[in-house]
Amino acid sequence: MNHTSSQRYVFSFFFLYSFVFGMLFPRIGDLQTQMGIGETNLGLALSGLPIGVQLALLFADKILYYLNFKIIINLGISLLGFFLFISSFSYNPFTFFIFLFCAGFIVGVVEVSVNIEADRVEYKIKKKIMNRSHSFWSLGFFSAGLLGAIFAQLNINPSFHFFVCFLLGVFLVFNFSKKYSIAPIRPTLTQKISLFVIPSKGIMALVFFTLSAMLVEGAGIDWSVIFMRDIFKTPPFINGMALFLGAAAQFLVRYNADKIIQDFGNQFVARVSIICMFFGLLTISLTNSPYLALLGFFIMGAGTAVLFPIAVSAAAQMSDKSSAANVASLAQISFVVFLIGPPFLGYLAEAYGIRISFIVCLPLLLLSWVFISSIDDK
């Protein structure tokens, strides 16, 4: 398999993983209405996803040791689509939580697996592809967002919508994976596999660097559709555009990020990203125009695009532990913000208004700015 083919297959796996995962988020408002619950209970139910991710990350290094990439990507996307499809039949937050917990466990394993495979392909072809790989994650997510917005506007039941995406994802991933040759393991320090990967000082610095992007991206994914619905009373298609535009901006930035980083360096790109998040959040929090809010979600999405991929590359290339161990360690700690984010932001939305759910993200931008030095400027 030539270098171009290896890249394209990795890009395809990122796309399919996020396309299946992303089908949930444009329909969260519909599922909230179906369950008849407020933002606090919805936030608690949504926390099933990050809790499942956290549990999976405890075992990710061991799972990747025993199962190869093809098995993980095929089984992972199939089970992820299945659990999300089943979640669409929920009529109370507890069952919704349980199915999202199962889906989150699959997400945790697949997330580490696709990032490690991208890093191995980078090493194999001697060319950076991590940010472009994540751009295809965003492409899959905004494709799912656009499709979800159309289905919502047409009043199509979420269960039928999820079933279509589930079948399409399974068909395509099995078709692509049978033609793909797994990249060889990047040579790193071997070590005993452990249940919990204790983060080094370098990993903790990367965690502080990425926290703002994680919370801001999570707020956009979980609450953008509901924000538009509750603040502006806009139609379902316009509500879905908030999610779609944020993911579209991520795609555009990530697709071109490797070349931009090569020309200007990681730290310059990180500073511009943090500034974009600041102006995007400010616009969303203060505007009384739905169209300015959509612009805010677009700018915010651009700002969140590259901080985590840059940190993943930095973690994967550390030589103190295996790539899988370092990436899992970064993800374990970083995803804590996804664990506390949904219920915390849901409570704030119900108690003080949904605008507050975005305003509280602003202080973490300063933390990311302080820890920019944790990434190499290359």
Pairing-aware structural class of the strands and helices?
mainly alpha
Q: What fraction, in percent, of the residue positions are helical?
A: over 70%
From the spread of the alpha carbons, the general shape counts as: globular
From the N-terminal CA to the C-terminal CA, the straight-line distance is 29 Å
Tally the helices.
17
Q: What is the C-alpha radius of gyration, as a whole number of Å?
A: 19 Å
- Give the total of beta strands: 0
Strand content: under 5%
Give the integer mean of the pLDDT values.
Answer: 89
Q: What sequence of helices (H) and strands (E) makes up the elements? A: HHHHHHHHHHHHHHHHH
Which residue ranges are poorly predicted, with pLDDT under 50 across at least 5 consecutive positions?
189-193
- Main beta sheet: none
Q: What's the helix and strand layout?
A:
Blueprint: H1 3-22, H2 28-35, H3 39-46, H4 48-66, H5 69-87, H6 93-125, H7 130-153, H8 158-177, H9 201-232, H10 236-264, H11 266-286, H12 290-303, H13 307-316, H14 323-334, H15 336-352, H16 356-359, H17 362-370
Helix pairs in contact: 1-5, 1-6, 1-7, 1-8, 3-6, 3-15, 4-6, 4-14, 4-15, 5-6, 5-8, 6-14, 7-10, 9-10, 9-12, 9-13, 9-14, 9-15, 9-17, 10-11, 10-12, 11-12, 11-17, 13-14
Description:
The protein is mainly α. Helix content is 79%, strand content 0%. The chain is built from 17 helices and no strands. Helix 11 (266-286) runs antiparallel to helix 12. The radius of gyration is 19 Å and the shape is globular. It starts with a helix and ends in an 8-residue tail after the last helix. 60% of the residues are buried. Mean pLDDT is 89; it is low at 189-193.
